[in-house]
Specification:
- The complex is a heterodimer of chains A (about 280) and B (about 575).
- Chain A is mostly helical.
- Chain A contains 9 helices and 2 strands.
- Chain A has 2 domains: about 180 residues, no CATH class; about 80 residues.
- In chain A, strand 1 and strand 2 form a beta hairpin.
- In chain A, helix 1 crosses helix 6.
- Helix content of chain B is about 40%, strand content about 20%.
- Chain B has 23 helices and 20 strands.
- In chain B, the strands form 4 sheets. Chain B has a 6-stranded mixed sheet, with helices on both faces.
- Classes of the chains: A mainly alpha (about 280), B alpha/beta (about 575).
- The interface between A and B is large, with 57 and 68 residues.
């Protein structure tokens, strides 16, 4: 059985060949930039770039189809709900009111509200391709190394790697246990009432915990015997060394980050870009 | 002469007691293992052999605390004053579970693990990993993930993982426990190759004596109840006749020699079948074989489970089971064997209804089972998993056994007599009010069998019922299953264990790549090179003995051995 937590496919292109640390930092920098700024121009630049990067990474559409669908639903819901709960927030921020058309009572569609909501939606939307790139184009083996180099202690970072390693085993154990319990008459199908079903699932969880504890003992003994935790630092077999492209990518992200800040501080003198005054 | 050699591991009046236990686990151990020796430590479960190993690698006292008396030095280092890390530079330990100890996400990473922990630079590390992987022939698979590897390959990786250091000694803790016979044989050959090529001191802890003796061993240390009771060369050990009383299985060919009335002496060199002086015993064996009566075949019974053209595939995948045709008679005890991935567990899942809608026909007492739900099947066919910890979900024995009936909505008055009956059959009546945590592995196994028996199935499928058990517990579990079988329950055993096949199941179904390779006697499966090879089994040493003694019908010889053992030895 080839169950894996991430559907990592080995490829070689500019994005895949970047070091995991680079991708992590670029992701963090660009995310911070779009999260800080409410200037649709800056956000649009990053949005377009992140789509270009996604394209460059050659990640297939079918790999991310489901994830994109969820994101789309979330964004749509968020857009509608923002309007339902605070239809006048845009006018409060920008201090003007250009009515496009009224609906009913305080529900009036204004240019200000639309600008605010479109900006906010773009903010979320531009982060998604960046996140996808980081998680899908980084070899799972390298993730722990990247997290460690980003300043997280190596023990915590390695726990992440162990999770990736043993999660599929856990799923297989769960399936086996569930099969055996069903053979004893445990009903997990939808025919059973929800309350009973939850109770039945508990009957699987207990053996799962015990067999997992057995596994943990082996793992921790192995790690002890092979010197885990001996030194304050550790090196990583799977870490990718930094190359010219990494420096360039980090530089680009830093420029975009600082540029966004600069636009807010020196051009707009505010987090918000206000075209209405 | 001995004093010239350099001791690598030296126990002096050594005793150890776990803090969690009332009695010491090791008593007065005096043992010296010299540089370049290859030593086997055998003993039944609970004899302290694993504890002995854990003392050598430092897990004791650093991970499992306890009180040490006396002294243990490893490469001149007093272990209790050292650390696991320091000791791991001298002794490389391979634990018994090749899957559990594979911590990396790829082969290269797993081998590199110890180097990473020592902050070895990446370039140097990759070089060492490549070289070490080549020692165990895994260098072409450095990027493979553990999910793509077989058990034997994972074990090779764990060998390499401890050999990245220039260790003086290698310690193997039950290296055969999770492997099929053919892979186990390869593992023993690989250990021997490492021993010869790299001149390491090797300590193997294992209770499967015959399998380890496939290759040369210098000394066998026999342990029982925390003490060393023998320290002999294999040839002397076979002559000493102490194994059976200690609950360790002696090699089958040695047992055969004894049945044939041959006095086993050191001069026979019976330590390994390769060195056995066959010429000296040939006449006795042939005479014994000729004197054995041919037993009549049991009359055929009505079929309980019958498959016709049975195929199964998971969604959009190549078929796992291809056009299976077989029949199991009511009252039979059958083994289902084959390599990992041959389709054994899928077949069990199809029979129990977990895998739904196979192609072809499956009949129970002649009745088609197609429309039966898992629930309906569970009243007729029971399924017992390999690891009891994966089945037990209640804390009290009574509740665990009663669970299946409670789930069927039966009243307490109906449940009680049925649970009592199941507990009685399984010899668990005295424990009915006990918590399960107080039971041994074998007893837990019985609880899981009782919890399936209580549903009164006519057929029970057991997955590896004796995995990881020593000879005594193995016999206990198997004799219990035999008595269950004698009282009318049909039993289907999924197993790798050749002794089990040979001794307990006259009928064996061998699967290979989803097809039936052999459906006939177990003796046949274990005396045919072709079947054994494809199914990752080993031909039994009895077959080898018979061949070398010049017996022409080896299959009959093996059958005679089993019949004889059944009629006289028990």
């Amino acid at each position: 059985m080839k169950a894996k937590l991430f559907d990592y496919v080995e490829r070689h292109n500019v994005i895949y060949d970047l070091s995991g640390v680079t991708k992590l930092f670029c992701f963090l920098l660009l995310t911070a930039a779009v999260m800080f700024s409410y200037d649709i121009r800056a956000i649009a630049v990053i949005m377009v770039l992140s789509l270009v990067f996604l394209r460059m990474s050659q990640i297939q559409f079918r790999q991310i189809k489901l994830m994109l669908l969820y994101v789309l639903i979330f964004l749509l819901l968020n857009f509608v709900l923002t309007f339902v709960f605070s239809p006048t927030y845009g006018t409060e921020i920008y201090g003007t009111k250009h009515v496009l058309f009224p609906i009913a009572g305080r529900y009036v569609i204004t240019s200000e509200q639309m600008l605010y909501q479109v900006t906010k939606t773009l903010k979320y939307a531009s982060v998604v391709p960046l996140g996808i790139i980081f998680f899908l184009s980084t070899n799972p083996s390298e993730l722990a190394a990247s997290i460690n180099r980003a300043g997280v202690s190596y023990k915590a970072a390695f726990a992440f790697s162990l999770t990736l390693r043993y999660f599929p085993d856990l799923i297989r154990d769960y399936q086996d246990i569930s099969a055996a319990q069903q053979c004893r008459g445990l009903d997990l199908s939808k025919k059973e009432k929800l309350g009973r079903r939850l109770k039945n699932i508990l009957n699987i969880t207990i053996p799962l915990i015990f067999s997992t504890l057995d596994r943990i003992e082996t793992i921790s003994n192995t790690m002890d015997l092979r010197g885990f935790g001996k030194e304050k630092k550790r090196t990583w077999y799977a870490a990718k060394p930094m190359k010219g492209n990494d420096i360039f990518a980090l530089g680009l992200s830093l420029v975009l980050f600082l540029g966004t800040l600069a636009v807010s501080f020196f051009v707009n003198h505010d987090k918000f870009w206000n075209p209405f005054i | 002469m001995e004093s010239n050699r350099k001791p690598v591991i030296e126990f002096r009046d050594f005793s150890f007691q776990y803090f969690s236990q009332a009695e010491p686990t090791l008593h007065d151990i005096n043992l010296t293992i010299y540089e370049g020796e290859k030593v086997l430590v055998v003993g039944p479960s609970g004899s302290g052999k694993s504890t002995l190993g854990n003392c050598i690698n430092g897990l004791i006292p650093f991970s499992y605390p306890g009180e040490i008396e006396g002294s243990l030095t490893v490469c001149g280092i007093e272990t209790k004053k050292s650390s696991i890390f320091a000791l791991s530079q001298h002794v490389g330990t391979v634990l018994q579970d090749p899957d559990g100890q594979f911590i990396g996400l790829s082969v290269g990473e797993d081998i590199a693990f110890a180097l990473e922990n020592e902050c070895v630079k990446q370039g140097e590390m990759k070089e060492i990993v490549r070289k070490t992987a080549a020692m165990v022939n895994m260098d072409s698979l450095l990027n493979a993930s553990p999910f793509e590897l077989s058990g034997g390959q994972k074990q090779r990786v764990s060998f390499a993982g401890v050999m990245v250091h220039e260790v003086e000694a290698l310690l193997f803790d039950e290296p055969l426990a999770n492997l099929d016979p053919a892979t186990g044989k390869t593992a023993i050959e690989l250990i021997d190759q490492i021993y010869q090529d790299y001149h390491k001191t090797v300590v193997i802890i294992e209770h499967r004596l015959e399998d380890v003796l496939h290759r040369r061993i210098d000394r066998v240390i026999v342990m029982s109840e925390g003490r060393i009771v023998a320290d002999l060369s294999p040839d002397v050990l076979m002559a000493a006749d102490i194994l059976k009383t200690l609950g360790i299985r002696e090699p089958l060919y040695v047992t055969a020699l004894k049945y044939a009335g041959v006095p086993v002496t050191e001069a026979l060199r019976a330590g390994r079948i390769d060195t056995l002086d066959v010429a000296a015993v040939q006449n006795a064996i042939c005479a014994w074989d000729a004197a054995q009566p041919e037993l009549e075949k049991r009359p055929a019974n009505e079929s309980i489970l019958e498959a016709a053209g049975l195929s199964y595939r998971y969604v959009e995948q190549r078929p796992i089971l291809k056009n299976l045709n077989f029949s199991i008679e009511a009252g039979e005890m059958v083994s289902l064997v084959g390599t990992n991935g041959a389709g054994k567990s899928t077949l069990a899942k199809v029979i129990t209804g977990i895998c739904k809608d196979p192609e072809g026909n499956l009949r129970f007492h002649g009745e088609p089972m197609d429309s039966w739900t898992i629930h309906e099947r569970s009243g007729k066919i029971g399924y017992v998993m390999q690891n009891p910890n994966q089945m037990i979900c209640k804390s009290m024995i009574y509740d665990e056994v009663a669970l299946g009936l409670k789930l069927r909505g039966m009243s307490e008055e109906e449940i009680r007599p049925r649970v009592d009956k199941a507990l009685k059959i399984c010899g668990l009546s005295p424990f009915r009010k006990w918590p399960i945590s107080a039971l041994s592995f074998g007893q837990k196994k019985r609880v899981t069998i009782a919890s399936v028996l209580v549903l009164e199935p006519e057929l029970i499928i057991l997955d590896e019922p004796t995995a990881g058990q020593d000879y005594r517990h193995y016999t206990e579990i198997m004799e219990f299953l035999r008595s269950l079988n004698a009282s009318g329950t049909t039993i289907l055993l999924i197993t790798h264990d050749m002794h089990l096949m040979l001794e307990y199941t006259p009928h064996a179904i061998v699967l290979h790549a989803g097809e039936i390779l052999h459906d006939g006697t177990a003796v046949r499966a274990l005396t045919s090179d072709e079947i054994a090879y494809k199914a990752s089994l080993k031909v039994t040493s009895l077959y080898e003995l018979a061949t070398r003694a010049g017996i022409w019908d080896c299959e009959a010889f093996v059958q005679h051995f089993i019949d004889y053992e059944r009629s006289t030895a028990r």
